[in-house]
């Protein structure tokens, strides 16, 4: 008797790699929760902009990611392993105040970086310092804010990380210093193929430097996805007054406003808008971000899905 032909195993699709993954993550200080029930996935190989209002939990999330804090609840994995473990040499971190040691010189910082980081690239660090025009003998406390930020970025990049985490690194800089910092960041991303998570209040900086967006409000991800796709799938509709409940099911209403005769909706949809009653206009990234930031996670139904947009 001839044996039946073997049936090839069904291929199981693999999930895209993540640089950072949190599940039910929370951090409490006494009675105050700085982060609660946060669940998100940050893709690897992308420059991810993390945006949200003050108090959303962005800095807490990033400090948990680099092991400076420990979770009260839930879990967080970075580069495939629990945060704070053996993957720390693979992570570069520039904190919100771009910390440097005021009494140490620029050269002292590079020597310290070399001693603390096994994959330290001294030629890269020295080349950056020279290109930026920083005096190796100058103490960090005498540098300008932009120069300290660039020194901190140099330390983060020269350790040759797989993931670079930046928590509001340019918030206190003037526009020129901010632009130079972001230009240098983009050059490093192109040269080293880094995964980057950049937290910022400035949507213009995210739009200039990032290709993926995560909007965090009240510890909850409101929307995440490729920025080009987000812009292509969000629209403003203006037309005769209409109730939100009458909108087609495939048009997810993000925000709505009304006058006596007119309605304006900001919607997300992957399908064409065929209703000729609407005037359709495109949105800027700032329009999209502000619309999601205006939605409080605490006032939304818990079963409302997070909008996740992939390329």
From TrEMBL:
InterPro entries: AAA+_ATPase, ABC_transporter-like_ATP-bd, ABC_Transporter_VariousFunc, P-loop_NTPase. Keywords: ATP-binding, Nucleotide-binding, Transport. Residues 20-243 form the ABC transporter domain. One of its GO terms (molecular function) is ATP hydrolysis activity. CDD domains: ABC_DR_subfamily_A (cd03230). This is ABC transporter related protein. It comes from Kribbella flavida (strain DSM 17836 / JCM 10339 / NBRC 14399).
């Amino acid at each position: 008797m001839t044996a039946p032909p073997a049936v090839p195993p069904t291929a199981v699709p693999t999930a895209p790699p993540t640089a950072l993954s949190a599940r039910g993550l929370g951090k409490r200080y006494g009675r105050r929760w700085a982060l609660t029930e946060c669940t998100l996935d940050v893709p690897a190989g992308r420059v991810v902009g993390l945006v949200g209002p003050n108090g959303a939990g962005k800095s807490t999330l990033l400090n948990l990611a680099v092991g400076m804090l420990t979770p009260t609840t839930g879990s967080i994995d970075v580069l495939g392993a629990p945060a704070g473990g053996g993957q720390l040499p693979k992570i570069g971190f520039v904190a919100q105040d771009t910390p440097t040691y005021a009494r140490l010189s620029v050269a002292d910082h590079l020597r310290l970086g070399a001693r603390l980081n096994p994959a330290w690239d001294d030629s890269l660090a020295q080349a950056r310092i020279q290109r930026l025009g920083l005096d190796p003998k100058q103490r960090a406390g005498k540098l300008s804010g932009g120069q300290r930020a660039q020194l901190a970025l140099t330390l983060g990049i020269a350790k040759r990380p797989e993931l670079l985490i930046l928590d509001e690194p340019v918030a206190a800089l003037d526009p020129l210093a901010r632009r130079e910092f972001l230009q240098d960041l983009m050059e490093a991303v192109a040269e080293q193929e880094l995964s980057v998570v950049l937290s910022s209040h400035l949507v213009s900086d995210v739009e200039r430097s990032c290709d993926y967006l995560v909007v965090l409000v009240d510890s909850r991800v409101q929307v995440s996805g490729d920025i080009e796709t987000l812009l292509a799938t969000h629209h403003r509709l203006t037309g005769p007054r209409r109730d939100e409940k009458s909108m087609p099911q495939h048009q997810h209403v993000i925000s709505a406003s009304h006058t006596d005769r007119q309605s304006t909706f900001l919607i997300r949809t992957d399908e064409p808008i065929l209703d000729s009653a609407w005037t359709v206009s495109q949105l800027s990234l700032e329009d999209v971000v502000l619309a999601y930031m205006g939605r409080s996670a605490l006032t939304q139904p818990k079963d409302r899905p997070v909008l996740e947009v992939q390329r």
